[in-house]
């Protein structure tokens, strides 16, 4: 109403037109992203719809915005960026899905198909780690160490649950998956999580060695904690990721076994796991006394 009283209707008309053109451009951009991501739920009924028409619509809207008013177009684009940042950092998680995840999935699948294992060369070899973890509470230092050791290669945290699915009403690994993913986020390690059910640890490690990874990205190195009589220590509770925030470890992992409690893994089975990995032409890394490693001191 103040704009009308001031007699500057043409000024506000240009701004409104610029905003409408920006809306049309973002709709075309959303359709372009859905088309490039090959989203299965995106089935446009427009007879002449292609990704070329989306690009043409975006370019046409942007050109018309700057032809109408370069100042208004720049201001509206700046306002759009501020709005996007505010939505990204302040809004709660959406329930309608993220187009970014669909685009990432599409690109990852395409490049994994292009990654040919027959073209591997020793010049470009990189360690791709499968770290077996029985309880993350006693392996926090080892998880950090292997994360530094992987050197831009694949990193998988493996865990074997000793249960029989035939005797259970549902899969017990599904509730644990969130705890493991939260652990990866909290420790800030670039790792995938692979859980399996097996009658023994050795059978479970075999399953993970056979099935972990995808295409040309498969673990070539098995990492195990050393088999000794040392009492397990809860390194997760003392990890800086938790102590700095002054919070407990609410990740749902069970407490560590008491020093007098027998191990789930026998020495014979441990040696059998190493033998299986060597038969599968995997490298084997046995880590010992990682609890005494001071990474901050080593980096000085």
Give the key terms:
single chain, 300 residues, alpha/beta, Rossmann fold, 5-stranded parallel beta sheet, 10% strand, potassium:chloride symporter activity, Solute carrier family 12 member 9, SLC12A_fam, membrane
Task: Explain what the structure shows.
With 300 residues, this protein is an alpha/beta fold. The protein has two domains: 2-103, no CATH class; 121-292, 3-Layer(aba) Sandwich (Rossmann fold). The protein has helices spanning 2-6, 9-36, 51-68, 70-90, 99-114, 140-149, 173-187, 201-211, 240-243, 267-279, 295-298, and strands at 129-132, 155-162, 192-198, 221-225, 283-287. It has a five-stranded parallel sheet with strand order 3-2-1-4-5, sandwiched between helices. Strand 1 (129-132), helix 6 (140-149) and strand 2 (155-162) form a beta-alpha-beta unit. Helix 2 runs antiparallel to helix 3 (51-68) and helix 8 packs parallel to helix 10. It is elongated, with a radius of gyration of 27 Å. The chain crosses the membrane at residues 12-36, 48-68, 74-91. Residues 141-229 form the SLC12A transporter C-terminal domain. One of its GO terms (biological process) is chloride ion homeostasis. Keywords: Membrane, Transmembrane, Transmembrane helix. It is found in: Membrane.
